[in-house]
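Q: What changes when glycyl-adenosine-5'-phosphate is included in the input?
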Amino acid sequence: MANQEDAFKKVVSHAKEYGFIFPSSEIYDGLGAVYDYGQLGIELKNNIKQYWWKSMVQYHENIVGIDSAIFMHPKIWKASGHVDAFNAPLIDNKDSKKRYRADVLIEDHIAKIEDKIKKEVEKAQKRFGDAFNKEQFVSTNPRVLEHQKKIDDITARYSECMNANDLEGLRQLILDLEIVCPISGTRNWTEVRQFNLMFATQMGSVSEGSDTIYLRPETAQGIFVNFLNVQKSGRMKIPFGIAQIGKAFRNEIVARQFIFRMREFEQMEMQFFVRPGEELEWFKYWKEERLKWHLALGIPAECYRYHDHEKLAHYANAATDIEFEFPFGFKELEGIHSRTNFDLSRHSEFSGKKLQYFDSELNENYTPYVIETSIGVDRTFLAIFSHGLKDEVLEDGSTRTVLSLPAVLAPYKAAILPLVKKDGLPEKAREIFDLLKYDFMVQYDEKDAIGRRYRRQDAIGTPYCITVDNETLEGQGVTVRERDTMKQERIPIENLRAYLHEHIQPIKVD
Ligand code: GAP
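A: The predicted holo structure follows.
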């Protein structure tokens, strides 16, 4: 646990030190669970969004994108169920006066037991070496079975309480599991209450008579209410999808996990409209497709797992999360939901407009069913950033910090470094900057010794360093150093663009 905490602290401090993420309003001591992206953070974030957008909209002939407004008619949130049911169960510790989400306390407790299983597996793996059979071990080892039984029992009770909205049952579960407040260390808990997570504000001046409106807690509803506009104007045929990237806002109770749980964050959502009865096939398709998208980033498969929902939202008939192993354990990164025809039907009912589709092949009208894929930009950022950040011991015993980002997502694709700040090298380096800047985000840097400049570029994830030296002036090209292998090769200047294009390819999802 101490190691996990240290790794997480390193992620947070590295993100700030190098201009990726700053606490919002920092000079005023910050604002809880709100963060600003700095000069490098915005580049990485934009590249992540572009990877998602291309893989959804550009690579699929039947998916189009929109950008709907954050403010929407207040009835939308009544129809979607958010006004009545977008709640989190909260609980306070009477001694520390700290507030927690009851569901998160229980999920963290389960995660601790999962951690014990992981440790047993790691121990056995060391003991048995190559002969180790993980599947056999977890299905027969008595200690693992005992831990697994505990998890299953807790999960069953927890799901029952959540499904029945049984707040007293949740509290009792927290007491029975002897969960203590991490601050006070006591079990002196209040009752559990429901808390609506939507931010409300006023539209129009008070004197005119203002209306309460909400900051959207998900981007999805902007897609549903535009279903007919897009279908008709784009002559879309079912099955088809509408994608959107945009801000969402939730008044989260627990704000202690950096950009994992924010009050203002960004979502990348896609609603895929299908024929009734075909939704579970499409659910399976998107479940697999989305995992492929993550794996195409080159992060090992063991960092991801599916978590099928036992507790289904009232509108869903299947749901799964893709969880990622963050520095603080496996947690939700993306949700894939089979939302039935709930949203379109409710908006038809509340707006009085028929949101249906005429299927010419079937010669019938119906309300389409929907598969949703919903992923947080910020959580994806955190996953890629935390996985890529490493301290390495080099052959000569020295250490370096390297941010191994996929090249196409890195803020800068190359740094152009004159070996020294004289002899015409800066001028030549600037020529190369001008040669590359229309194709790639490149950085010019002449400050400090070359070794320190390499380290700085490693720390911000720049995949290539291009060094300009005296031989460059004699027409003998430049040195290109690759971040991860630190291998260097000599490349003629006229080949540089082609070299970078060849090595920095868009990520393909096969
Ligand atoms: N439209 C469905 C929906 O919003 P969700 O599971 O509540 O589903 C989808 O959210 C994704 O949005 C999550 O998997 C997560 O990546 C991201 N997300 C949700 N709440 C967040 C928060 N407070 N901070 C950062 N990301 C969040």
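Observations recorded in class: Residues 218, 220, 250, 252, 261-262, 265, 267, 269, 332-335, 372, 374-376, 378-379 surround glycyl-adenosine-5'-phosphate (CB under 6 Å).
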